[in-house]
User: Fold this.
Amino acid sequence: MTSLPTLSTPPRRPIRELPDELISQIAAGEVVERPASVVRELVDNALDAGATQITLRLQAGGVRLISVEDNGCGILRSELPNALKRHATSKIASLSDLESVGTMGFRGEALAAICSIAEVSVLTRVDTPDEPHGWLFDGRTGELQPTARATGTTVEVRELFYATPARRKFLKTDATELGHCIEAVRRHALARPDVGFAIWHEGKLVAQWRAVAGGGMDALRQRLADVLGEDFIEQAVAVSWPVDPPDDGLERLRVWGFAGVPDAARSRADWQFAYVNGRYVRDKVITHAARSAYEDVLHGHRQPVYALFVSLDPARVDVNVHPTKIEVRFRNSREVHQGVHHAVEGALAVPRSGSNAAEATTPVASPAAPAWTPPARQAPFSFAPREAEVGHRVSDVGALWGFGSGGASTGSARTDVFASPPVSASAAYAPDTVRAEPVAALAAPQPLPEGDWPLGRAIAQLQGVYILAENAHGLVVVDMHAAHERIVYERLKQQLDDQQVASQPLLIPATFSATPDEVATAEDCAGVLAELGLEVSMLSPKTLAVRAVPTTLAQGDPVELARSVLAELGQHEASTVVQRARNELLATMACHGAVRANRRLTLDEMNALLRQMEVTERSDQCNHGRPTWRQMGMKELDALFLRGR
Ligand code: ADP
Ligand code: MG
Assistant:
């Protein structure tokens, strides 16, 4: 048997103060991981100096050279040597300043750290009559030389990690490092549409984003389109929360930006940009809140895309918890979570129409403002003014789809939408009879001019699967099962929230032979079932009878419905049908209640479905996150046929 090595006490060593150079090198280990970290710090500084144009020049992915040129305020000759010293900063002077930092930097260690691991020189000029020219400062020798330069600063960083070759070995290829550098600038660029950026690599211009005049949502939209591409903005909805912030001058939590529709989700979480008081952050609270807002519309592992800006009283967030300031700590993270969740969820819930989502929102330009000042609330695209009218009309055909609320109308527009004369019990489960009856009601005058219907006028059904409709933009194609499923789902959710799932008794109970599990669940969960509008009772130890079903699902198969609900309930603790299980349950139910493929619909039924979609939240996606409808614009159609216009 081999003996274990014995732990010997290390020899005693004296406690010494570390030399400054070494302290900076250790700090550099935290601050500078790769060229992109240097880029971020230098761009931070340029923005803090009030620059409106920032130009980067890189060589060998930033390893050989990173030069950041700005047109900011410059550094006074007398302060130049200080700028490169450890813990030297112009941004805070006291602990109380730290409570309200509005600048990107404040730790005063970036330049010193970079100096300790690379060759740094600073070329700068302040706009003052005392200094008719600029100064070139050599970080290694401390030499100062007069030079010509316009107001502003250029910091050059050469041979990164020359003094620490071990670190240099960890770097990836030039192309990869360049990619990280561009990403670092991109994060800044999204937060500051008012600043122009240009990136050169080996003498070639690799990215350029021009400063956007104005401000607010319009400027942000333009910058997002420039940086992330037109596609991003075409598939994004504007976020602005709260809807009506009180005008009391208090610095309240605000959330704004753009969130991609579920359709635009990606397999990687690489297009999730979150900012707190203008600072790019990676924050679990925000990420989780945003993802949870997509829960209902994005299933599986797809990652939503968004650029979200959170602003709050600086005293309520600690930015000094991480050397690179990329993490923050909120005093009340619950408040932030709720704000972000509501902001995104609300934006996604607004039904969109037209050929693209961005067009559908009508932003109101807000005056030029600091980048992190939230824009004035813009009016989201909304069907609201017409809701009542549409609702009234749709109510006439509500029964076609089994939307009837059993006559229990509370008078609100929302309820009206679904209100319908109670369907007689005998007619339940005889869809054809149910459908035949109210068609006459469709002759009622249509209050909304046809041309105004966002989803257009139905013209045909394709292969029993799609509804084709014509609107102002061209052709609309609707997946009828997916769309109807969402409508039924939202309807059930609403009813359950209001604690009144309308239930409809069956004249003849539907019996089925059940497993012992099913019988047990039916007994244990009678209360939950009743809440869901279902009544299932035991006829014998092996037989269950469905006696009532939710009115919304009246046209489905009661046995199938009961079986799948029992199966789901059996998996959960009856007393804790939490939000998540609840929504899954409702989704299962909705699937049973939704109109099946291959069912022939009349034009009136198709139109009824389109009108329902227009007033249903989140109707752009089915419960599984797939789109429910698509627009094919005339341009696209013309292109198909090579038809010039
Ligand atoms: P911090 O940004 O945390 O203050 P840095 O080490 O990044 O620390 O910068 C030190 C100081 O140098 C800053 O506080 C600022 O006064 C000055 N400085 C750095 N870069 C610039 C620049 N591009 N323009 C003007 N001043 C600058
Ligand atoms: Mg700094």
